[in-house]
Amino acid sequence: MENGRGVTAAFVSCRRSMSLHAQQIPAPKSSPPDNGSGNVLDFHLDASKILAPAAGGENEAFAPLPLRNLDAGTKIPFNVFIKCKTQDQDQPQFMLCCPKGQVFLRDWHRKLKSLKVPWVYFPLQENEAVLNYLHFNLQDINPQNCCTDPDKAALILDAMLIWIQHFFLAEKFRTGSKLNMALDFIDLLFAFIKGSKAYLSFIVEIKHHDEVLFKHSLNVCTISLAFISYLGLTDREARFFGVGALLHDLGMTQVPRPVLQKPGRLDEAEMKQIMRHPLQSYYMLKHLSGIPKDPILMVQQHHENGDGSGYPMGLPGSSTHPWAKILRIIDSYESVTSGRPWRPAKSPKETLWDMRHEWEKSQVYDPALLRAFIKFLGDGN
Ligand SMILES: [Fe+2]
Question: N or C: which end of the chain has fewer CB within 10 A?
Fold first, then answer.
């Protein structure tokens, strides 16, 4: 991870190359102030030449944040960057546009929006400050009467994605207070989902982030909240089902990245590493206070199959926790409809056809729950 000095160096280098590049791009509308406090967002920017949208993942020192999360006209408690790429640089650079503690001007917000640059970046080492900021800003949302504003739902999903990124990053971040924060987000999201039939509108297509694991975790949690609402679980059950769904693949953080992102088929040793993840998720959650038994068992057993062919224990359906059976179906559905490095995504319609004609014949999924899920998908479309 880049330290503060590295960030400054990147900023300086980017500033320098911007000035070199200035002859090839439209002239700035004004000159930088003599005191050196000029901000890149105060100058004329050409989105097509300077600001490159993220594609295929980010520098590991930075993470994207949708612009809608910055409360324009207020102080921002973390450093905000934009990403730029000039003709004389091979790699995009991250340029500081709002230092920590400075007000993010409404004009900057408008400018980025008009340039169709709907996100900014923050240093990953500041993700705790970002998360606290997003959590605080969501306090104004009242779960009882918030169910009609899609913009607010988007803010909750943005915050949850940052939360997953934070929680999955290192053990020191996996604390009881962080878990309570996730429960707050889940309560808010559940209130939206309960009030809407179109749960698919909550499924996130994270084009600016190539971390499949984060997107999968968030989508599985979202679909889970919708499905268990349909099944009639209580609000209390929903929040703990939601947290289990969010963390079911936490153990995947112990699998080396090259194995997770391998485009071809995995060999036997790599497959064994992957198959350890339910137990690893289980051990990681077991040590956290505040998580009841049901979500912990659900996480441990989410790859068990009805015919005993699953892993890690090969439990038959009769011994598998009912929440794990529900998660088994949702986990498969989300993976198939999102695709993986080694196979393309299938449409929800194609997947529904597979579920009716292949999944139902297999002994993998609980038949009654699978029928209910198919009906739920049909009712939601
Ligand atoms: Fe899994």
Answer: N
Domain finish residue from 76, 93, 125: 125
For position 220, which CATH number holds? 1.10.3210.10
102-143 confidence digits (pLDDT tens): 999 999 899 888 888 888 999 989 999 999 999 999 987 765
Calpha distance 260→57 (Å, rounded): 14
Q: Which domain holds residue 45?
A: 1-125
Q: Give me ligand 1 centre to Cα 302, in Å.
A: 6
- Tell me, in angstroms, the distance from the centre of ligand 1 to residue 52's CA: 34
Range picked from 161-175, 187-201, 293-307, 336-350 for highest mean pLDDT: 293-307
Reported pTM: 0.81
CA of 356 to the centre of ligand 1 (A): 23
CA–CA gap between residue 220 and residue 200 (Å, rounded) = 12
Q: Specify whether 109 is located in the same domain as 180.
A: no
Tell the residue number behind the tokens 């791009």, with chain if given.
Answer: 25
Q: What's the gap in Å between 313 CA and the centre of ligand 1?
A: 14
Separation of CA 151 and ligand 1 centre (Å): 30
pLDDT value of residue 198: 59
Does the residue 130 lie in any domain?
A: no
Average pLDDT over residues 39-60: 61
Kindly give, in sequence order, each residue whose CB lies less than 8 Å from that of residue 80, ignoring residues fewer than 6 positions away: 65, 70, 96, 97, 98, 104, 120, 121, 122
CA 364 to ligand 1 center in whole angstroms: 15
